[in-house]
From TrEMBL:
Gene behind this protein: LOC116220984
Transmembrane intervals: none
Chain ranges of the B box-type domain: 149-189
Keyword flag Zinc-finger: yes
Identification of the protein by name: E3 ubiquitin-protein ligase TRIM47-like
């Protein structure tokens, strides 16, 4: 029952020209509704005759009617789409940074998953399902979601690029072949893609060959760097060993020199101390003899004085002969 209601409403909101849901709907004088782009495209082809007709009932109009967006119908189409979305069980996903936003969502924008080149709209999962339900069996060109849909349509004719002009090396729509690019060498975009893909084959092979060469050079360079690091590490270890041995040898020699100096110091100090001891003894003896002489000089016994001075003079002479002071 619900599907039947949806089908009836869908037929009411379908453009008789593109057979899709009405987009920017307009109502012409005969009362029929069309997408603004569709009806103006039809009437553009009738400009030469100056008589404009309804594609559905064939009623004619002169002059060309001016059409405006029917906001009531647009709101009804939007309500139908929202109802269709609410009936869907697919869980939506919010659009994040870098994602393409769904063109049909109102308010919170969901992440688009597909873009339709016929509708020139990007759809989230829910709206894409609704798009397919509304267009059963109709062949629309659908690609992964892209935010560059406007770059795929002709700015002059508002038609999708389907042709490639080899003369001007640019993408054009089929209406461009009738005016600005009339008489030019044109082919379908798919045919030009195939041709350029074939031309890119040798270039791609050269790139692959160059990549293999560079990868080989990279491996050799990495190997050389590894060898260099290994050699440097060996040199460092050798230098560490040599310097360690030198330091040990210097430490050993330092200990030997230190020990030799201490031995020489000990011998010299011992000799000097012996000499000091002998000098102290000699000084003490001389002081004792000097005191005796001083005492003798005051005696009044001349015989005693002479006898002692003779005996002491010989003794003093012998004492000085055994020293460096003599």
């Amino acid at each position: 029952m619900a599907e039947a209601i949806f089908k009836k409403e869908e037929d009411s909101f379908t453009c008789p020209v593109c057979l899709d849901l009405l987009k920017d709907p307009v109502t012409i004088p005969c009362g029929h509704n069309f997408c603004m782009r569709c009806i103006e495209g039809c009437w553009d082809q009738e400009d030469q005759r100056g008589v404009y007709s309804c594609p559905l009932c064939k009623r004619t109009f002169t002059p060309r009617p001016t059409v405006y967006k029917n906001h009531l119908i647009a709101e009804m189409v939007e309500t139908f789409m929202k109802t269709r979305i609410q009936a869907s069980s697919i869980t939506p996903s919010n659009a994040g940074p870098g994602d393409v936003e769904c063109d049909v969502c109102t308010g919170r924008k969901l992440r688009a998953v597909k873009s339709c080149l016929d509708c020139l709209l990007s759809y989230c999962e829910t709206h894409f399902k609704a798009h397919n339900d509304v267009n059963p069996g109709r062949k629309h060109s659908v690609i992964d979601a892209t935010g560059q849909l406007q770059e795929r349509i002709c700015s002059h004719h508002k038609k999708v690029f389907e042709i490639f002009c080899r003369t001007d090396q640019s993408c054009i729509c089929y209406l461009c072949t009738m005016d600005k690019h009339k008489g030019h060498d044109t082919v379908s975009a798919a045919a030009e893609r195939t041709d350029k893909q074939r031309q890119l084959g040798p270039t791609q092979r050269r790139f692959q060959q160059r990549i293999q060469e560079r990868e080989k050079e990279l491996q050799e360079l990495r190997k050389a760097v590894k060898t260099l690091k290994s050699s440097a590490q060996t040199a460092v270890e050798d230098s560490e060993r040599i310097f360690t041995e030198m330091i040990r040898s210097i430490e050993r020699r330092r200990s030997e020199v230190k020990e030799l100096i201490r031995d020489q110091e000990k011998a010299e100090v011992s000799r000097a101390e012996g000499l000091l001891k002998r000098l102290e003894q000699e000084i003490a003896e001389l002081k004792r003899r000097d005191a005796e002489l001083e005492q003798l000089s005051h005696t009044e016994d001349h015989i005693h004085f002479l006898k002692v001075t003779v005996d002491d003079g010989l003794l003093v002479h012998r004492m000085f002969e055994g020293t460096d002071l003599c």
